[in-house]
């Protein structure tokens, strides 16, 4: 190995996890702090643990709840069509006298 080009190697580097687990390894850093280790990682433990640093889990659950509530309020196409038709049937239709004459002429020409 060449001199003065390689970083210093610490054979007794202390690694500390957020769960409180500590172990020793070799590294170019004297101490390392990590969020997940083999003692708390879901792959090794088989238990799901959510590490939420930016409220991502809370935002996702809120989004899912909002979608579920809007889906409950939504109606199908047939229900919407029936509602539209009832609104149209309740409207008053005003027919002008000119329109009546045109309608009468059309009916007479057909016979």
Model description:
With 111 residues, the protein is α+β, with helices and mostly antiparallel strands. The protein has a domain at 1-49: Rhinovirus 14, subunit 4 (Irregular). The protein contains four helices and three strands. It has helices spanning 42-45, 56-73, 77-90, 97-110, and strands at residues 10-17, 22-27, 31-34. It has a three-stranded mixed β-sheet with strand order 2-1-3, with no helix packed on it. A hairpin with a 4-residue loop joins β1 (10-17) and β2. The longest helix is centred in the middle third of the chain and has 18 residues, at 56-73. The chain is rod-shaped. The mean pLDDT is 79.
List the main descriptive attributes of the protein structure presented here.
111 residues, alpha+beta, Rhinovirus 14, subunit 4, 4 helices, 45% helix, rod-shaped
Ordered list of secondary-structure elements with their pairings:
Blueprint: E1 10-17, E2 22-27, E3 31-34, H1 42-45, H2 56-73, H3 77-90, H4 97-110
Parallel strand pairs: 1-3
Antiparallel strand pairs: 1-2
Total number of beta strands: 3
Number of helices: 4
The average pLDDT is: 79
Low-pLDDT windows of residues: none
Radius of gyration: 37 Å
Residue fraction in strands: 15-25%
CATH class of the domain at 1-49: Few Secondary Structures
Report the biggest beta sheet as strand number plus sense, adding barrel if it closes.
3 strands, mixed
Structural class: alpha+beta
CATH topology of the domain at 1-49: Rhinovirus 14, subunit 4
Which strand order do you get reading across the main beta sheet? 2-1-3
Helicity, as a percent range:
40-55%
């Amino acid at each position: 190995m060449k001199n003065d080009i390689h970083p210093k190697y610490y054979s007794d580097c202390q690694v500390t996890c957020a769960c409180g687990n500590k172990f020793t390894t070799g590294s170019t850093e004297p101490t390392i702090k990590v969020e997940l280790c083999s003692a708390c990682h879901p792959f090794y433990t088989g238990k799901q643990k959510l590490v939420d640093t930016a409220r991502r889990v809370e935002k996702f659950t809120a989004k899912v709840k909002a979608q579920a509530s809007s889906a409950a309020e939504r109606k199908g196409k047939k229900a919407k069509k029936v509602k539209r038709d009832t609104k149209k049937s309740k409207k008053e239709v005003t027919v002008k006298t000119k329109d009546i004459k045109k309608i009468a002429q059309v009916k007479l020409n057909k016979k």
